[in-house]
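Thread title: Can someone regenerate the structure for this chain?

I was given the following input by a collaborator and told the matching C-alpha cells would be attached. They weren't. Posting the sequence so someone can regenerate them.
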Amino acid sequence: MAAGPRATADTAPAAGAGEVEGEHIKPFTPEKAKEIIMSLQQPAIFCNMAVDWPAQHWTAEHLSEVLHGKQIRFRMGMKRTDTVPQFETTCGYVEATLEEFLTWNCDRSPLSGPFRDYDHSKFWAYADYKYFVSLFDDKTDIFEGVIWSDFGFPGRNGRESTLWIGSMGAHTPCHLDSYGCNLVFQVQGRKRWHLFPPEDTPFLYPTRIPYEESSVFSKINVVNPDLKRFPRFCKARRHMVTLNPGQVLFVPRHWWHYVESIDPVTVSINSWIELEEDHQARVEEAITRILVCALKTAEDPHNTRAWLNPTEVEETSHEVNCRYLNRAVSALFDYYRTSKVVEIQALRTNREHMKKEGLNVHNHMEMEQTGGQDLSVGVVKQEAASLFGPDLVPVILTSEELPSKTGSIFEGDGKDFVGEDGEHSGKLHCTKRQRMMSKSEDAIVEQNASNSNMAPSQTLISTDDLLDCLLNPQVTRIVAQLLIQGRSLWF
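Best answer:
Regenerated them for you:
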C-alpha cells in the first residue's frame, strides 16, 4: 500500500539545537513535562528531551558488552500474518546471551546453540519485560543512565525501568495496562505503535486469558483482524505512530496498544508511572486474580501454563489470592486516610445513588469521577494541547482502512494524522471520555452476542466464555466499587 502524504519527526531539531555554551536547553522543564503528562489524555511524543542521556548510546551491541555472558530469556514467535494473536503462552522460549542473539539475528542460523531450532527467516526473538534491577543487579551504576527526573519525577531512573530488545517482527499483543501511565524511550531501531482509546474497550473484545496481573489482552490481532468473528472492531479508533530513536512516547492510562519492531534490532526502555487511580485498580486486579485462578484451576488443576502467562510465577492458591485482595483493600483505605481526601463521603453518596438507580453503577461512576471536574480539566487539556509543536507531537487518529492480507499497515488520511515517523501534520483530535460511555452496556451485549455467533458444535459455553463476561473491565470496576462501598460502612 502506498504511503499517503506525511511529514516526519526526523525534521525535529538536532541534538545540539538550542544549546547555550555547550549545554543543551531542553524544550520543557521537569515541572512542565510532568504537568503535561498528568493532564494530557492522548498519546504524544516528546522530542529533544533525552539527547544527553547516557542511555541513548545503549545499542544491543553495547549492552552485549555490558552484560557479557549473562543469560537472558528470549520469547520466540512466528513471522506470520494470521488472525490469531501470538500470546506469550503460545510462544517458545530460549535462554541465550545477547552475543548469541546478535549472531542469530545476522541471519546466521547456527547449527548448535540456543537458537538452533529457530530459523531466522521464520521466527522473531524478543527479550521483553527485562527489569533493570534484575538484569543489572551487579552493575547498579548503569541506573543513572536513564533520567526520568527530566520529566518531573525526581530520583526516578533505571531502577524503575524495563528493557526491551527485539528482532524485526517481534511484538507485544494488543493489551491495556491496568496500572499507571507509560513513558517509553526508543534507543535503537524503530517501533510501530497501534493505540486505541479506553472508550473503545468494548470494540477490542477484552479477555483475561492468558492471565497476567495488570494486563488486559484483546482477542484480536489488530494488524490482521478477523472481522467476521469480531465485527465491532471496525468501530475502534486506531492511532498509529512510529517511534524513532531518541524520542519518548507518552501512553496515557488505559490506552490499548500493540507494539511491533520494524527494524532488524530494536532497543527500548520504559517506566510505568504510578497514578492515584492505581489504588482502586489493584482491588479490581485482586478480584480478577481470585476468579481466574479459582475457575481455571478447578477446570484443570494440572495445566496452569495453558492460561497463566509465563510472567506470572507467584503461587495461585485461593488463600494467597484472598490475602492479596485484603491487602489491596486495606491499602486503598490507608490511602484515603493519609491523603485526607473526601473519597469516603463520595462512596456513601454513590451508595445512595445506587439505591435510586439500581445496578446502573458504571455510568454513574464515570459521571462522578469526571462531572465535577470537567471545567478545570478542560482548561488543563487546552493548555497541554497548546504546547503541541516540534517538541511535543500528538498521536492522531488514523484512517479506518484495514490492512491488506499481505500485512500492510494502516495509513493516515493526510488530514488529522501523525505520520509514521511521528510528525503532526494536522489539527488535534480530542478524545472525549463521555463519548462512548452511554453505549457501553449495549456494546458488551453485542460483543458477547458476536462471540456466540458460531457453528452449533461450538456453542457450548466454556470457562473462558464465562470469565470474559465476569471479568469484563466494566464489570470488574462495578464489583470493586460495590466491595469498597461495603467496607466503607466501617468508617
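The chain is about 30% helix and 20% strand.
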